[in-house]
Amino acid sequence: MPCRMMYRVVEVTSEEEGHGGMELLEVGPQARGWMAAKYCIYPQTIILGLESRTTVEKLQIMGHPWGVPTKIEIWIGDVPKGQEVDIKKAYFMKLGEVAMESNKDNDYIARQLQSIEVSQGARPCPITFIKLVLHKNYQNRKNQYNQVGLTAVNIIGTPVEKADSQNGFNLDGDIWSLYDDLSFLMYTDTEVAQLINKLEKKKFEAVATERFEYAKKIKSAISELCEAGQMLGSLEMEMHDLADKEEYDQAKDKKSQMDEFRVEVYKTLEITDLLELQGGPRNH
């Protein structure tokens, strides 16, 4: 089944200090994202390498609030069969491009999310690399150095080896969930998002083994965790804003507020029991 794919950043044309390509690997309210160098030359390119050959089904790109490119080209790449996976041996094919809006209407605060269906209705095409080509930025008052940036990239697909070996539903494998979508991950506390992912798998296992009361409890807990996770995500962004302004006492208070709220939520929902950790009850 499709799942959220891990990747590495293979190449970037340029990067701003503190906003290097590796920042794209961090997804959540704390994400800093990648940004091109000041006064860079266009186009700017980012190449991502998948952990293994993968049939990609969806690609999500979250832009920067004010470092917005006019358009982004999407290229997919692979190496010749039998060759070692090396970017120098890769060949690329242009998949298409997406036009970005200037973000003027949002006062350069919101971040645009583009979701591209890669293999919908098409013959599966396993790939190893994804190349994003970002064209010249929209000019605005906040972007005095003519930079472009991306806050996050999300890749959904199925590794070729897993697709070949699976026959029907696999409880041990990763499962694509709505909670793997960037629109959820970027605004939800990272720890809570990971917890929801674990509970989703537990819910599928419960249904498969006809433990329906257990599945019902998990469903209810996930719903409440979604709200709590978004609240924690909001508090985390406020904490980082305070820290950036060097208001450290207030940032410390905000962190304490987060920690107390997290403990309260986990205790109320009996998370340890739901995950069946440490020999927790199974009489659901």
How much of the sequence lies in strands comes to: 25-35%
Give the count of helical stretches. 6
What is the overall shape? flat
How do the helices and strands follow one another from N- to C-terminus?
A: EEEEEEEEEHHHHHH
**Low-confidence regions:** 168-172
Rg estimate, integer Å: 21 Å
N-to-C CA distance: 27 Å
Largest sheet: 9 strands, antiparallel
Key features?
6 helices; flat; 284 residues; alpha+beta; nine-stranded antiparallel β-sheet
Kindly describe this structure:
By secondary structure, the chain is α+β, with helices and mostly antiparallel strands. Helix content is 31%, strand content 25%. It is built from 6 helices and 9 strands. The chain has helices at 160-165, 182-185, 190-208, 212-244, 248-269, 271-275; strands spanning 3-4, 7-12, 34-35, 44-63, 71-78, 91-99, 113-117, 126-134, 149-159. Strands 1, 2, 3, 4, 5, 6, 7, 8 and 9 form a 9-stranded antiparallel β-sheet that branches. Helix 4 (212-244) packs antiparallel against helix 5 (248-269). The longest helix has 33 residues, at 212-244. The radius of gyration is 21 Å and the shape is flat. Residues 168-172 have low confidence and may be disordered.
SSE topology sketch:
Elements: E1 3-4, E2 7-12, E3 34-35, E4 44-63, E5 71-78, E6 91-99, E7 113-117, E8 126-134, E9 149-159, H1 160-165, H2 182-185, H3 190-208, H4 212-244, H5 248-269, H6 271-275
Antiparallel strand pairs: 1-9, 2-4, 3-9, 4-7, 4-8, 4-9, 5-6, 5-8
